[in-house]
Amino acid sequence: MPQTDPRRGLLIILSSPSGAGKSTLARRLMEWDPTLSFSVSATTRAPRNGEEDGVHYHFLSETEFKTKVIEGEMLEHAHVFGNFYGSPVGPVREAINDGCDVLFDIDWQGAQQIKTSALRDHVLSIFVLPPSIAELRRRLTSRGQDAEEVIQKRMQKSWDEISHWDGYDYVLINDDLEATFERLKTIVSAERLRQPQQPGLVNFVRGLQSEFDEAER
Ligand code: ADP
Ligand code: 5GP
Q1: Does the beta carbon of 17 lie inside 6 Å of ligand 1?
Q2: Ligand 1 within 6 A of 174 CB?
Q3: Which three-class secondary structure state does DSSP give residue 166?
Q4: Which one, out of 21, 111, 123, 140, has a CA that is 20 to 30 A from the CA of 93?
Q5: Cα 178 off chain centre by
Q6: 13 class by beta-carbon count within 10 Å (0-12 exposed, 13-18 middle, 19+ buried)
Q7: How far is the CA of 23 from the centre of ligand 2 (A)?
Q8: What are the residues whose beta carbons fall under 8 Å from the beta carbon of 145, sequence distance 6 or more?
Q9: Structure pTM?
Q10: CA dist., res. 99 & res. 24, Å (int)
Q11: Which residues line ligand 2 (CB under 6 A)?
């Protein structure tokens, strides 16, 4: 595509009730486009089996987390299922200044904070719904990573998260994973072509105008 200035990076936010499939979709999106930068959140919850510090989350103590909030190092933060979660602002700024899109797997509270932050003009928000509540429970259980008590807590909170669905730019019902992923790629591809995402267009059209003036007038 003819373009002289780098494209501005998008902040792509994926939210859903726990278990609806947003981490799976986020992982697929990262494999599809390795230039995407994943925002590794900080959390005070304990690591699950297979989760690595600095890769899936930055695992912090409550004191460490609160210090980072006070020092303005979090773009947003929230209390979810009894633990603190937050998105470190430094890597996000760096990525979007380099023209890279950043992918967030965060809850509705975080999405709302980013949408009212200084970076709000660059936000693309997508909410993922489960096809049914029974399927949501089935997925949470089949993931096999949480104790029954934790699953119960997440199910109790799922309606709270779902009730914020209409504050998002796009909503996907994650029934068939492949079909949902196709729709997600379509959304991201189209949003990247929006006029404000292509600052180089101004110069490109100026070039067309000069050529037009010389050749056609
Ligand atoms: P979330 O990040 O929203 O909590 P996950 O991505 O961890 O959810 O998905 C929860 C479980 O459901 C995982 O075991 C995942 O493999 C499975 N899953 C995700 N999407 C689908 C789908 N469309 N159909 C069936 N299972 C799915
Ligand atoms: P989990 O414990 O399953 O990894 O995440 C629990 C919930 O916290 C999910 O809804 C997830 O999207 C959300 N979450 C993860 N990281 C962040 C974050 O940095 N900020 C906010 N606000 N929510 C987060």
Answers
A1: no
A2: yes
A3: helix
A4: 21
A5: 19
A6: buried
A7: 10
A8: 48, 49
A9: 0.93
A10: 25
A11: 18, 41, 45, 76, 78, 80-81, 85-87, 105-107, 109-110
pLDDT 10s digits, 156-211: 999 999 999 999 999 999 999 999 999 999 999 999 999 888 888 999 999 999 99
Q: Which atom of ligand 2 is nearest to the CA of 111?
A: 22
The helix (H) or strand (E) run that includes residue 173 is strand 170-173
pLDDT for 108-133, tens place per residue? 999 999 999 988 989 999 999 999 99
Nearest to 65 by CA among 48, 80, 51: 80
Which strands sit side by side in the sheet containing 11-15, from one edge to the other? Answer: 37-38, 102-105, 11-15, 123-129, 170-173
Ligand nearest to the CA of 138: 1
Pairing of strands 102-105, 170-173: unpaired
Residue with tokens 């709270």: 160
